[in-house]
Amino acid sequence: MNPYIDRQELKERSKNPKFCIACFRERDGVPVDKHHVCMDCRKGSDGMPKRLPAVTLKSGKTYFVDHRLGELRNIHNPGDRIDLKDLDGANLLA
Asked: Which helix H or strand E contains 72, and what residues bound it?
């Protein structure tokens, strides 16, 4: 939540269907979904994070593929990670 806005003001602004809670702007010409997030923010523009792809291994564990860090990270336990260099074409995918 924006540190410069209180809950009451956010509640009032959210009554406007064109208001985006991610960028805190009234969006004209950009669609805003039912969760009050504009499509620019959904696409990851203006510094918004993008969703990482996920893969499930034969072990049944699901990992996020983080190419930036070069590793697979368990979606439930981020401390459980596998370095992509260690895989070397291993057939681990389910």
From this structure: strand 71-74
